Amino acid sequence: xxxxxxxxxxxxxxxxxxxxxxxxxxxxxxxxxxxxxxxxxxxxxxxxxxxxxxxxxxxxxxxxxxxxxxxxxxxxxxxxxxxxxxxxxxxxxxxxxxxxxxxxxxxxxxxxxxxxxxxxxxxxxxxxxxxxxxxxxxxxxxxxxxxxxxxxxxxxxxxxxxxxxxxxxxxxxxxxxxxxxxxxxxxxxxxxxxxxxxxxxxxxxxxxxxxxxxxxxxxxxxxxxxxxxxxxxxxxxxxxxxxxxxxxxxxxxxxxxxxxxxxxxxxxxxxxxxxxxxxxxxxxxxxxxxxxx
Length: 293
Known about the structure:
This protein is α+β, with helices and mostly antiparallel strands. Helix content is about 30%, strand content about 20%.
């Protein structure tokens, strides 16, 4: 019986890796056939229906990580990024949190021990906790690290988590895949309901932008085009390099999960991080991946 269980676990793992490979190949094909932009009408953006295998099914989907704000944009190439810092502050306000929390997010990853602003925190703060620990002083490796950062509890983490990611390099926001709430954070002057109308029309008509600068000629963005935050243009793009694969294997009545972080450069795709924890939908609080697929 023990040998049978181990065999089934190995089989489920192979199915999961096969799902990852299949979805990775969609990104390779997309790079070959659609070099201009990445958008939600493309094949890679469609969920993989439950594929039948012996005694079970395999299902999965790809998530564009450039549809979110990269926490590691705050400090890169050995220096802080003022425009990215301000954008995160606006995003925090949009979800109902204090903009000053961007200070503690910045301090968690910058390499020095200098406290930033009123909400910043370094080793002196974290070592003073009941179970002390050090600030990372390096880029975020996963979004869940936010739970260790000053000012973030489970509730505040769940508010911001759907809109942020943690990929290794500077990553602009893809305006063809980003949510209305994130795009409205490009400026304090944007109204979320107006941006939602634009995003709904974008996806319904599948009229995606061929240049990220075009967004400032679109209503409602054109209303603030002459008064947009300085330097915000370089924080937007229409191409994506980082993606997340979410795979569910249902085999013999047991579920196995695989979440892989992918990096695409040219026509090559590689996985740089994997874990096997269940996938949660933080927007709805739903913990069942089958409803996501």
